[in-house]
């Protein structure tokens, strides 16, 4: 980025730039979402339904009652955890597209733990299965992290490939060695485990809703990740490496170890999300449908959207996860009312990603045109000195 | 066990492996062209999905497979234009914008499928075209020379792309844009124009790959590609940005898939085991990525938007 002359800018030009920067800093993300929703409205109308009815059904379905809010909060848990994991990796300038696989491995590790140790009391078993899940995901994130750090293997590709390995391994295990052989499944086995021990279920916090303990844990993890990234030496190193690998090397930082650790931690968050999906589920089993997203529900991809929309800041990611979970939960309600398939929400998520990353360049240019002392809050570009 | 490995079964397995390799190959060759010019298009899987749906809808409405293929290519070209706009003009982070295109196409293709197609009906099959004389070669003839037109097209594209990249001025400009865009620019080569063209060509091929996959399957379904487009991107690295290497990778995937299908059909491996066996090519690809990263250099400007004077 070339620094343009800092001299005394004419007042008018200066304030125009200032406004442009403020607009792009604070309104770029909402504007992206708004633009996507407008495109969505056109699509709904083209499919012969009323966009207002559709979006009204979506909002009511997502936020309209305490039950809806509970479902949205529960849906937000894996999105938030994956999103936080993505924040950590992306801040180190490592693109973790491996959420899907890390979720699957985390779910498997947690489930296996619960199946092997069914007699432990809940206060012991619940932390144990969550940690097991995190470790499973961490292991699956460490591989592409180390490959990237030490052998310069493109992490986007290795994580995508490891997604395929993990998900197919999961489908094999759930349909084979880990399948439920109990009665009532005579005509073709469903790829799912047997009922998990009751002491491993995440306790429901508000009666008559789905709201479980995982919601609180996920928010605490997000806050912890924020502290880690902006208040610790490790977090500083992660952001420094993300900003400039060369500069970090020159400063004597252990760049390779930092990259590996960032990916491991990122995978750990996704693995924890996998555990939450299992132990916070209504069926209290690990279930898939044999497809690539049967267990994860695409949380590994949607988590990327959530993290980008949260400006790669774990605290904003809490808000963002809740909004996107609302879209997903409300999308089903919209489908019932307007007969517009909830796939629309997946498509809109994609559009939001495209809009956000496209606006980032415009934003960067506006920042470069600004005088040096003004520092906007970062959206995508990792920035060491800004504190979020 | 020996009756499982007769010549007839071997021939059929290899022939179907080559057929299954075709969509991978077409998509990966398109991606190769784009990456040689410096652009990573990670939306290939999504472009394949929309290309496949466009082809399916056309085939249902008109009954013409030729039109279906053309629409698949057209849809790909259109999405290529969008991808180029985002990656080249708006200089977006390519690894992420591609995921956006993928998610959009994943949702949009199924949305259209559910709303526009009432009862999903199978479409026509392509005729097998035996190559005269060559198809009479024992064993090999049955494997290689009794395929449909799209398979021949896929494998003919290998020398065509290699020629384009290595023997034409356009290919030279592509590689210059991918290796040293500033130098290319200073010699009067318009880097954005080159990259727009390669991304649109590559995406058109992704659309063709989607249509090919559709015609092989005979019917559309949600997430028809099952991440084949992502694998195609990995195959470009696997093949170290060379068309022949990319072909080797596509054959690895096609043949593994065919072997697993055959074994499953013969009951050698249980149904659930096919998932386990299906992980093999992905594991091999990850290991290949390790080797390639050590031995080959990717295009120097890969994934980097070009900014004049930056």
Succession of helices and strands of chain A: HHHHHHHHHHHHH
- As residue ranges, the low-confidence spans of chain B are none
Q: Strand fraction band of chain A?
A: under 5%
Strand percent estimate of chain B? under 5%
The CATH architecture of chain B can be named as Orthogonal Bundle
How many domains of chain A?
Answer: 1
Structural class of chain B: mainly alpha
Named CATH topology of chain B: ABC transporter involved in vitamin B12 uptake, BtuC
Rg over alpha carbons of chain A: 22 Å
**CATH class annotation of chain A:** Mainly Alpha
Count of all domains of chain B: 1
Give an account of the 3D structure:
The complex is a heterodimer of chains A (388) and B (310). Chain A starts with 10 loop residues before the first helix and ends in a 19-residue tail after the last helix. Chain A has one domain: ABC transporter involved in vitamin B12 uptake, BtuC (Orthogonal Bundle), CATH 1.10.3470. Chain A is mainly alpha-helical. With 310 residues, chain B is an all-alpha fold. Chain B has one domain: ABC transporter involved in vitamin B12 uptake, BtuC, CATH 1.10.3470. In chain B, strands 1-2 form a two-stranded antiparallel ribbon. Chain B contains twelve helices and two strands; from the N terminus they run H-H-H-H-E-H-E-H-H-H-H-H-H-H. Chains A and B meet through helix 6, helix 11 and helix 13 of A and helix 4, helix 10 and helix 12 of B.
